[in-house]
Amino acid sequence: MLPIVYPTEASGEYLDIRCAYYGITRKVGTAAKVALTVSGQDGVQVPKGSAFLTVAGVRFLTDAAAVIADGLAQIAAVAAEAGITGNVAAG
Prior knowledge:
Distance between the termini: 45 Å
Mean pLDDT: 89
Structural class: mainly beta
Low-confidence stretches: none
Number of domains: 2
Strand content: 25-35%
Helix content: under 10%
Order of helices and strands: HEEEEEE
Largest sheet: 4 strands, antiparallel
Strand order of the largest sheet: 1-6-4-3
Number of strands: 6
Number of helices: 1
């Protein structure tokens, strides 16, 4: 039996087709947003678009430039890829 017959068992394109009967469409994924705390030498500039990686290799790009002061800088960043891959635990 095709998965489209049972919505609770459907996934991927079958779920999209089934939902279309009711006028429901899949939302486009969005990129996760984070606040990075960067440490380093005072006066060092972190340019907009700088890439930072988690230990697992998830890449984030800074939204704005920042300058390290008192050894730290807080920088807003966004995941390089939209969707669930950018969802990471704090720290």
